[in-house]
Amino acid sequence: RRGEMAKSTQLIDNEVFRAYATYAGIVLIKMMLMSLITAYFRITRKAFVNPEDTESFGKGENAKKYLRTDPDVERARRVHLNDLENIVPFVGIGLLYALSGPELSTALLHFRIFAGARILHTFAYLIPLPQPSRGLSWAVGYSVTFSMAYKVLKTAWLL
Amino acid sequence: RRGEMAKSTQLIDNEVFRAYATYAGIVLIKMMLMSLITAYFRITRKAFVNPEDTESFGKGENAKKYLRTDPDVERARRVHLNDLENIVPFVGIGLLYALSGPELSTALLHFRIFAGARILHTFAYLIPLPQPSRGLSWAVGYSVTFSMAYKVLKTAWLL
Amino acid sequence: RRGEMAKSTQLIDNEVFRAYATYAGIVLIKMMLMSLITAYFRITRKAFVNPEDTESFGKGENAKKYLRTDPDVERARRVHLNDLENIVPFVGIGLLYALSGPELSTALLHFRIFAGARILHTFAYLIPLPQPSRGLSWAVGYSVTFSMAYKVLKTAWLL
């Protein structure tokens, strides 16, 4: 397997890069699952935003009553937006971090804490757990990304 | 041209990576065009959200009446947000996929189907076409990204 | 320091890539700071969206009155979303651009103008400055990203 990959590029043979690819893949999949959770709430709560989505419920007023907001749908959408605001910077900064030559153990520590914190954040937000569980899990992921950004800027700095 | 690039990095000489760069560029440009479509609807429908944007329409109540929502503006904004939720994961996972050593023909199949599905999705959402055209085009792009993520995790897995 | 990095990958030794890493890091950090600005306005204006966030203010109706929107909070959220719509494409296209073999001086020109324009855009949006300051700073960053995308597609084109 490694031989086949070496033909195209050596980057994936680097252990830090492989760890990055694994965790970036996991948190991006986690973020994408929010689409399914939002769709699940839209369908079970019958709360839609596009008129064309309610046409199967009938015509006119009968369909229009399903064009409404629902607290569970809105909550799932907020989790998704929060993921965009936090996971996307992690994926961008994490790539540069993985290319900046960190120790494998240090890199794994960053990636594992970030992924764990974001998974906790999703549960804390969706259930919801009492604060400060959501706030703390958010702050942990945020701090990990800043720590990686510091290493990137220290290594690459060329203004 | 290839000689000049080889001086800086060989990555762009890899055919799978070139295909990735082409399709990632195309779908990111498509996503960015949503800003112009939203701006077009805001101006033609005179529906703004920032008070400073309506000052050219006069002072006081005359300007305030343009601080309102419009169905076409909101629809364009939803397309843009849906692009962020789907095109951004494609760009991140697609990069790792391109570096994981897929066959060029398999990679092109993934990239072409994704780009086609997202362009169809935009038309299905904006016109709008009756469902399930928007739902199906969304699901196709979503599945392609998952297929790439599976290949990335299978190749890189280092937890 | 360079010796240690060379062990893992040579990419970070490329000057254009180092410049990209620096500016991508800066604009991603700038984007992430919007979370803190939104949180600051939510706390000082006492305007929250999640019931669990207002529980420290008391029970029942006393806490419910803080579940409201506030103009400053909404403005900060719009800046954050605008950053997602513009900085994320810059980071994706900029990476491909950095790997497409541009001259260092040309690349620095693109990165510096983009970063400057987005920092100006944030101030123009938050203060807010009269239009067209926000519109112009947005358009400058947008144009820089298109210029980079053009170079990427010209270099990599493989459909």
Question: How would you explain this protein's 3D organization?
Answer:
3 copies of one chain form a homotrimer. Chain A is 73% helix and 0% strand. The first copy, chain A, is mainly α. Residues 1-9 of chain A have low confidence and may be disordered. Chains in contact: A-B, A-C, B-C. The B-C interface holds B 1, 4-9, 11-12, 15, 17-19, 21-22, 24-26, 28-29, 31-32, 34-35, 49-50, 52-53, 55-56, 80, 84, 88, 91, 95 and C 11, 14, 16-17, 75, 78, 84-86, 88-89, 92-93, 95-96, 99-101, 128-131, 134, 142, 145-146, 149, 152-153, 155-159. Chains A, B, C: GO terms for molecular function: glutathione transferase activity. Chains A, B, C: This is Microsomal glutathione S-transferase 1. Chains A, B, C: It comes from Buphagus erythrorhynchus.
In which range does the helix fraction of chain A lie? over 70%
How many separate domains make up the residues of chain A?
A: 1
CATH superfamily of chain A: Membrane associated eicosanoid/glutathione metabolism-like domain
Oligomer: homotrimer
Specify the CATH class of chain A.
Mainly Alpha
Strand count, sense and barrel status of the largest sheet of chain A are:
none
Task: Report low-confidence residues of chain A grouped into runs of 5 or more.
Answer: 1-9
The share of residues in extended strands of chain A comes to under 5%
Q: On the 0-100 scale, what is the average pLDDT of chain A?
A: 92
* Count of DSSP-assigned helices of chain A: 6
Which pair of chains forms the biggest interface, and how many residues does each contribute? A-C, 35 and 35 residues
N-to-C series of helices and strands of chain A:
HHHHHH
Tell me the overall shape of chain A: elongated
* Radius of gyration of chain A using CA atoms only: 20 Å
In total, how many beta strands of chain A?
0
Class from helix and strand fractions of chain A: mainly alpha
CATH topology of chain A: the name is Four Helix Bundle (Hemerythrin (Met), subunit A)
- Tell me which CATH architecture of chain A applies here: Up-down Bundle
The first-to-last residue Cα distance of chain A is 40 Å
